Amino acid sequence: MFFAKSLVLLSFALSVLALTTPHFPRAHHHRRSLSPNAPPPPTTTHTSPKPTHTGGIGLPSFLVGTQTGQGTFYATGLGACGITNNDGQHIVAVSHLLFDAFPGYNGINPNANPVCNKQVRVSYQGKSVTVTITDRCEGCALTDLDFSPSAFNQLASFDVGRISGMTWEWL
Fold this sequence. Notes:
InterPro entries: Expansin_CellWall, RlpA-like_DPBB, RlpA-like_sf. The protein is an alpha/beta fold.
C-alpha cells in the first residue's frame, strides 16, 4: 500500500513539474534561445571575407558602393536593435559580421548600434524594395540580407526560399 501511494505521489509531482517548466518556441533561425538550459550553439566557421578598407576613403568596403549577396526571409519579432516588428513590415537583418563591425558600434548594447534604422535599397531581377535594418543575422555572410516575409515577397516568391545575386546599397 505504501509503495502504491508513493508511486502515485511521485507521478503527480513529476506531472506538475512538467507543466510548470517553461517551454520557449524558437521564432526563427537567428535568434538566441531563451532557455537557460539550452545547449550552446554549434560553432561554425564563416568563409565570408572580413571587412576591408577601400582605397583613400578609409571606410569599410561594405559601406560604399553596391553590395552583392544572398537573400533569405525569416519570421520577425524582437530584433537585435530592440525593435519589435511584424512580418508585414519591410525590415531586414544584416549579417552579424556587418552589424558587429559597423562604425560607431561599441559592441556592448546592440540596441544602440548606429546601423539600426538605416535603410538600404535592394534589387533582384528587375524588382526592388527599400528596407530598414532592425536585426542581426547569425547565419548570413557579410553582404547577405535576411528579410521580413513582406519585403522578400517584393523581390521573389517564397517558394524560391533563397535568392542569389541580389544587389543592395545604402540610402
